[in-house]
Design brief:
alpha/beta; 284 residues; single chain; six-stranded parallel β-sheet; Rossmann fold
Length: 284
């Protein structure tokens, strides 16, 4: 039986999510979330947050004791959640945001260091002797890709390599198709880079496919790295060197922090940083 003293609200996005066993987190987190809930003997309660108005209404009911919860876990964080975090901080109610891209001042959450992941991935290209390294990124306002772009620049700067704007591509399409088209443009350029950092694994899949179609050898002609991993070394036609995260750690770390908050007075935000690890494969 779940422990009633561990009743945690799982904030979901749509009414349909509240009826799903994975709370709408999707396949990436659902198994690890449910595993953490079971391991910690938590009673998980869906909290609907279809709109900001609905979420604020639910928060007031929770803080007033109309809905009995001992903490709240939010599936993701966006700048729009800052006001929610401030309200919860003022009340002292335990909460955590899951899957943040970076530490946010005054916000409790678990974040994967996207900046350092991209830095490590780009550094791998430098360590293997590559000097002309392009970044195939995304035109995206999310903190995730912003941090990955910064990590690429930092790795080059640390190695004393001049950053060229001609080697930075920001795609409107972040998937395989966008990566394929970007690689085609690079192949047609006068001076092909000898290393490519891709801001997502799906971009890398398209890039590798285009390089092979053009007769390029990987990594002999051009090496490719990325961040994130789907657990399948054969996801790309050439096994991809990338920075992986232990997804199982995210919900577990967030829920453990929530349970500690019940018995701890805190003056500062509770932030848990998770690092990635580089998986060296054939592409670099």
């Amino acid at each position: 039986m779940p422990d009633e003293a561990k009743k945690i609200g799982i904030v979901v996005s749509t009414p349909e999510d509240a009826t799903h066993s994975d709370f709408g987190f999707g396949p990436r987190y659902s198994r690890s979330l449910l595993k953490a809930i079971k391991a910690l003997n938590i009673e998980a309660v869906p909290v609907q947050a279809v709109t900001k108005l609905n979420l604020n209404k639910n928060l007031k009911e929770i803080l007033n004791g109309e809905i009995i919860l001992h903490g709240m876990l939010f599936c993701s964080y966006t700048p729009a959640h800052k006001q929610v975090a401030e309200m919860l901080n003022e009340s002292g109610f335990p909460y955590m945001f899951l899957d943040m891209a970076r530490a946010e001042p005054g916000v409790n959450g678990v974040y994967i260091d996207q900046f350092d992941a991209a830095r490590m991935s780009t550094a791998r290209l430098i360590e293997t002797g590559h000097k002309k390294i392009a970044c195939i990124g995304v035109v995206d306002e999310s903190e995730w890709f912003e941090e990955r772009h910064k990590g690429y620049f930092r790795a080059l700067s640390d190695a004393g390599i001049k950053v060229s704007g001609d080697l930075v591509f920001r795609l409107s399409e972040p998937g395989e198709a966008g990566g394929y088209m970007a690689a085609q443009k690079l192949i047609a350029s006068v001076e092909m880079p000898d290393g490519l950092f891709c801001a997502s694994i799906r971009i890398a899949k398209g890039v590798i496919k285009a390089l092979l179609a053009a007769g390029k050898k990987i990594p002999q002609d051009v090496a490719v790295t990325s961040v994130d991993d789907l657990g399948d070394p054969n996801f790309c036609e050439v096994p991809l060197t990338t920075v992986d995260y232990d997804i199982d750690r995210l919900p577990l770390a967030a829920l453990e922090a929530l349970l500690r908050m019940k018995n701890e007075k805190r003056a500062e935000a509770v932030q848990v940083r998770l690092e990635g690890k580089i998986l060296i494969r054939k592409s670099a």
